[in-house]
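Quick note —
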Amino acid sequence: MILFYVYGSGLGHLNRILSYIKIRKIELSSCIILTNSQHKKFLPQEIKMMCYPDSFFKDHELFFSTLIRCIEKYAVYEFVVDVFPCGFYGELSILDRVNVKKTIVTRILKTSYFDKYSCPHYDDLILLEKGIELDYYKYSNLIYLSIQEDFEYSKQKLPLKEPFFFIIHSEPKEEVIQLYKLAQLYQKNNEHIYIQTFSKITEFDEEDVTLIFSKKPILSLLERSAKIFTACGFNTFFATQDYRQKQHFLPFKRRFDDQFKRKKYNPL
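Predicted structure written out below.
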């Protein structure tokens, strides 16, 4: 079995790992995901899920003992870490004591993360985007991998009101509202606004805005929109790469993820 450490409240972390699993052609039934995400219902049922609250990850002793039991019980031969090389709370600082193959799937992080935590040694480092500072990592093998080609898009049919703008941002609600205000600045032809999100929002005029709840970017909205408004998170950034000419970014501050650096170093 392969055990995946996926820390993050949004759907982006799970989507990235699911794309990684598909690209590496890993059998779903051989995967275990250890996560705090509440979006587990969006993943294939063949994947075994181990969901814990944030308090579990903050308790380093409990986390480590659970990790070791899981490795032994399921005969785990590889431990794959999503993004945070030392864990979100430093809970992976003991990873050098774990005797299985260790892989880190990287994403741009602020240097302040590495001021706080020291990276354990990984056998494989998977490089997914430009702007990652490798000097902060300890690894044996460097592997370049693109997951853009494996993003899945929704073919959902909608009676579209054209012309329209498309906002795609899962959460939080406050950031969705900021993207909406940005879109309003560009309205010249009474464009309708479609918002794909997971946030529960009631502030919008229903005649001007259509809210859509979907886990995958909707292809028809991407293709036929006059403009697209997004943040600069990893998954959305690469899932919308083919539509850069009409896309407007609004990077947001994150504790460790650096959306501003992603926009700077990756092609727009």
